[in-house]
Design goal:
Elements (H helix, E strand, L loop, with lengths): L11 E5 L5 E8 L4 E16 L7 E12 L3 H8 L11 E12 L2 E10 L2 E15 L2 E11 L15 E12 L1
Antiparallel strand pairs: 1-3, 1-9, 2-3, 2-9, 3-4, 4-5, 5-6, 6-7, 7-8, 8-9
């Protein structure tokens, strides 16, 4: 690859380590006047590096109840039926459908399911490197919360969220 941070890891199946993986987000609140940052924990996942590389796949399950934005009352509201409704929808899921080259990098296309609503997403791979039996992946994307039916309280959170996914995995 042309960029030093995106390397082709060894072919194989890798299990994501939940203790060392996360999804972080940035958005705005109060009608764009303040930044909101936070994280979700990853419950499980798997990355398969294939030959050819474009046949590679990824899937992940994120713990919706692990949402943390550093403001307890807002976090409670986001976990409630107003947004994520974690009591009925405890998981956020990603399932890839295609890996495509994009200039000097890679884009992983797939479906993200939040609160029972699925929508396509494209993850721009910003880091990929293997070491021994391990694999580190980082990717970014912007999602539209309205695409997942999350349209309440428009002043509490902006429509778009910028996500950064960090996954550490070991060969299974």
């Amino acid at each position: 690859m042309a960029t030093a941070t995106v390397q082709i890891p060894a072919a194989g199946t890798y299990r994501i380590d939940p203790a060392d993986s996360s999804v972080s987000f940035t958005t705005r609140h109060m009608f764009g006047l303040g930044a909101v940052k936070g994280t979700f924990g990853v419950l499980s996942g798997e990355v398969t590096i294939a030959d050819p590389l474009t046949a590679s796949t990824a899937r992940a399950v994120i713990d919706a109840a692990s949402f943390s934005g550093g403001h307890p009352q807002r976090d409670k509201d986001v976990k409630s039926a107003n947004f994520l409704h974690v009591g009925e929808h405890p998981h956020i899921r990603f399932e890839s459908s295609q890996l495509v080259g994009d200039g000097d990098g890679w884009v992983l296309r797939g479906q993200l399911t939040v609160r029972g609503h699925s929508a396509p997403v494209e993850l721009a791979v910003t880091e990929s490197r293997g070491s021994g039996d391990g694999l580190t992946l980082r990717a970014t994307t912007r999602i539209d919360r309205y695409a997942f039916g999350l349209t309440k309280k428009k002043g509490l959170a902006a429509r778009y969220l910028d996500l950064e996914i960090t996954a550490h995995a070991t060969r299974s």
